[in-house]
Design brief:
alpha+beta
């Protein structure tokens, strides 16, 4: 594997001193290293959503009921995420601006555990699973942290 640094990293942005094993990995690839300095939607659209969510036509806005009608293309992602109820758990918003622990998207990409959500959620059904499905591995920790920072900042354009 390319550039695996470690499996251990902080559990949330607030736990910088804690080294807790997560499902993600700290990678030394350019997009993962670059993610450390980003929390902006344009970067997320290009470096997280495009390769991990749109690839394979999963969330590219073309598929009727496919992928919960979630369009994550550049210019479309924010409108389909922020303050939008999850189709799997309508009591949870996909992105609750300023509230990472209440954002269902972070649970779906394995940044937070279902039981740590506010309020707690159920894991996705087995026929849906965690995201992204285009890769057997979760997103790198740095990209997940960038996504969490964007949400914590209020999910701005």
């Amino acid at each position: 594997m390319l550039g695996l640094a470690a499996l251990a990293c902080r559990t949330t942005l607030e736990d910088e001193d804690q080294a807790v094993q997560r499902t993600c990995r700290i990678l030394e690839t350019a997009p993962c290293t670059d993610a450390k300095s980003h929390a902006d939607l344009a970067w997320l659209e290009e470096n997280v959503f495009k390769p991990g969510c749109i690839a394979g036509s999963c969330h590219d806005g073309t598929g009727g009921d496919q992928a919960a009608k979630l369009d994550l293309r550049a210019g479309m992602a924010r409108a389909h995420l922020v303050n939008v109820p999850s189709k799997l758990e309508p009591d949870h918003l996909l992105v609750a601006a300023g509230q990472p622990s209440a954002s269902y998207l972070l649970m779906m990409v394995q940044q937070i555990r279902p039981e740590d959500m506010t309020p707690p959620a159920s894991p996705p059904p087995a026929d849906v699973g965690f995201m992204p499905q285009t890769s057997p591995e979760p997103l790198c920790c740095q990209k997940l942290d960038a996504l969490e920072r964007w949400i914590a900042m209020g999910a701005p354009n």
